[in-house]
Amino acid sequence: MDEITTPFDEFEHASGIATVFRRGILARCLQAALRAVSFSALWLAILTAGFLVVRRAWPLVMGSPAPISLKSAIPLIAIGFSYACLTVTLRRTFSQHVLGILVGLAFMLWGAEQFLTNQEIISLIDDIVVVLFVSDLSIVIRHNFASCAGERLVRNACFPVVKTIETYNFAAQPSIEEGHVRALIEGKYIDRRENVIIVGNPGAGKTHLATALGHAACLQRKHVWFTTASALVSELIEAHERRRLRQFHRKLDRLDLLIIDEIDYVRLPDLRAHLLFEVLRTGYERTSLVITSTIPLEKWAEAFDSETAAKSAVDCVTDRGHVLEATGDSYRQPGRKAIVEPQFRAC
Ligand code: ADP
Ligand code: MG
After folding, report:
1. Backbone angles phi, psi at 109, to 5 degrees
2. Residue 93, Cβ density class (10 Å: 0-12 exposed, 13-18 middle, ≥19 buried)
3. Strand ranges, E, within the chain
4. Burial level of 123, CB count in 10 A (0-12/13-18/19+)?
5. Neighbours of 295 (CB within 10 A)
6. Which ligand is the nearest neighbour of the Cα of 229?
7. Which residues, listed in sequence order, are joined to residue 325 by a DSSP beta bridge?
8. Which residues pair with 90 in a beta bridge?
9. What is the whole-number distance in angstroms between the Cα of residue 339 and the centre of ligand 2?
10. Which ligand is nearest to the CA of 161?
11. So what's the pLDDT on residue 9?
12. Quick one: which ligand is closest to 203's CA?
């Protein structure tokens, strides 16, 4: 069944659910309880607001006053309560939490206003409510812009299939240090122009990790491009033949992160090898690279003909590189369930 989405979903970070799991069972229960309270209060607001409409329409239709009266304070207070409870369950910064709760309180005050008689206090409450609404709306709009930009960057990155760190099973690959990967996910390595080299057997989750790093970078408003070594070489050859190599390099220069998947035993003809290793070498100062390969680092020099530009390119990449070595077995082992193979799509 599809998950129910709310207008507030955009506040939920991609890792929100997993974070809750890490926080433990108590936090999860509290969150579930708050959501339930929020949901109940919302229904109370809907029913009482509906009742108010009926009550107003009653004299028009029936010609007599409605038998039961109800102040609009009730739905307003219920909305405020629902909003404040919901805000606590969302992944927001401390100040956003405070502001959300204040908006909830503002609704409640707005409702409670109906029981007040002092006009000065009523006007003051109205003004406070307006200020809080405007502040909260500005946060919603800012988040919306940020998430739209992130989605656009994810689309432009051309991932074969979007994978995140939350679906990576670290227990299945003990040689990959979770803390190291989570630190990389924060993206500071990109600001420092450092590289990540992921080596391991086929099926060990190299592409998954590379995609997860790229996806996280997109959400941090970084320009990312995911490609395979063979696709990159083809594009380089095409650009070379059309004498557009410089433009192609300029396009690469604009990236914050270039992910090259499956750099394996490439016994490439001279020109192809030269073009590929030139990308690695020239990107060294300007762009971060995430590279996946089945070749252990110590064998790189022999794997890539060390007489060519390969040696210096490999040195450049590994010089400021974080190495993640997946020494475990393939995740595609027979018997393991629920593995969705990447579906490569044209980009
Ligand atoms: P590689 O690039 O190393 O050949 P992939 O990243 O393509 O391997 O992984 C193959 C499949 O197995 C993918 O669907 C991937 O999501 C999954 N997979 C591999 N390792 C893990 C893991 N540790 N946790 C979760 N899924 C994994
Ligand atoms: Mg792969």
Report:
1. -60, -40
2. exposed
3. 195-200, 224-228, 257-261, 288-293, 321-326
4. exposed
5. 15
6. 2
7. 199
8. none
9. 14
10. 1
11. 42
12. 1
DSSP reduced 3-state for 340: coil
Asked if 316 and 291 touch (Cβ cutoff 8 Å), the reply is no
pLDDT of residue 23: 58
The protein residue with its alpha carbon nearest to ligand 1, atom 25, reads: 168
Pocket of ligand 1 (CB under 6 A): 163, 167-169, 172-173, 200, 202-208, 292, 331-332, 339-342
CA of 339 relative to ligand 1 center, distance in Å: 8
What whole-number distance in Å separates Cα of residue 339 and Cα of residue 18?
A: 19
321-326, strands of its sheet edge to edge: 224-228, 257-261, 288-293, 195-200, 321-326
pLDDT at residue 157 above 90? Answer: yes
Tell the residue number behind the tokens 């995609």, with chain if given: 211
Report strand pairing: 288-293 vs 257-261. parallel
Atom of ligand 1 nearest to the CA of 198: 3
d(CA 5, CA 313): 47
Q: How many CB atoms lie within 10 A of CB 4?
A: 6
Contact 260, 291 (CB under 8 A): yes
What's the 340 CA to ligand 2 centre distance in angstroms? 13
Mean per-residue pLDDT for 242-248? 91
Does 215 score more than 70 pLDDT? Answer: yes
Protein residue closest via CA to atom 26 of ligand 1: 168
Average pLDDT over residues 268-274: 68
Answer whether residue 338 shows pLDDT above 70.
Answer: no
With the most atoms of ligand 1 within 8 angstroms of its CB, the residue from 170, 175, 208 to mutate is 208
Reported confidence tier of residue 5, pLDDT bands at 50, 70, 90: very low
Q: Which of 154-163, 265-274, 326-335, 338-347 is the least confident region?
A: 338-347
Distance between Cα 75 and ligand 2 center (Å): 54
Which residues are close to ligand 2, an ion, with C-beta < 5 A? 207
